[in-house]
Design goal:
With 296 residues, the protein is α/β, with parallel strands linked by helices. The chain is built from 10 helices and 10 strands. It has one domain: Rossmann fold, CATH 3.40.50.300.
Amino acid sequence: MIGLSFAFASSESWGWAETVAAVINPVNNTSMCTNWRARPSTNPCEVPYDRTMDSLIEPSSLTGLSPDTIAISKVNLSLGTGAARVHILKDISLRVTQGEAIGLIGPSGSGKSTLLMVMAGLERPDSGEVVVNGTPFNALDEDALARFRGRQVGIVFQSFHLIPTMTALENVAVPLELAGNPQAAQRAAQELMSVGLGDRQHHYPSQLSGGEQQRVALARALAPDPAILVADEPTGNLDEATGKQIVDLLFTKHAERGMTLVLVTHDTSLAQRCDRVIRLRSGRIDTVAADRTAAS
């Protein structure tokens, strides 16, 4: 299961409806939200989200950075088997400080989306070390890594990945419900209000425009209040005007909440809005642009 702030266990589980159906007992959608206080479908005490677990993990050689950072050291990752095996990431080392926004750019196949997946804990590297918010991923099994993603990482994809049988409110509430939040519906409603969809809470994805669907996806990623927000081509399926609105909203939320932002894009002008721009080529970091704030 993946971590759109969900506690999904594997980066290969992209079947949203099938995956969530195994966790949430299907009931009338409106009833789920209306009677949330009286009948939470997930009992908080039954969800193993022990926030003290990070303190029990052996320290990494890359820890000691300020909180809410990403540290990657000598990461290599290959995908495929046999003659089809491709070396995607090659000796990648990178550090991202608390509250920083970085833009990952490069030609198709350069490895930028794969690097984002490694940062989010959705792909495990063949070698090297990944430390996020002081927690080394090498020390976590799949279940622990999924729980960590559910608490610390919000993810926005190009294709929205909304559950078609759930309303906007229910989609945003899913990660909160999985975490056992007794105020999931109320928090979901607040997040939808914050992205300008207060009047669309009970609409299904098919009743929303592309821009509105991406707003729902952003609200869902933000709902658990993650330390890190990653976005993979968030405007790729949107027209120019709608894409600009989504980007403005993304950077507004980044500034308001002080979270770390990792943005993958083909749009150089969009990447320039970040504090740093990192260009990948053939699986390696080609150039790292000067810090925008330092250069100004």
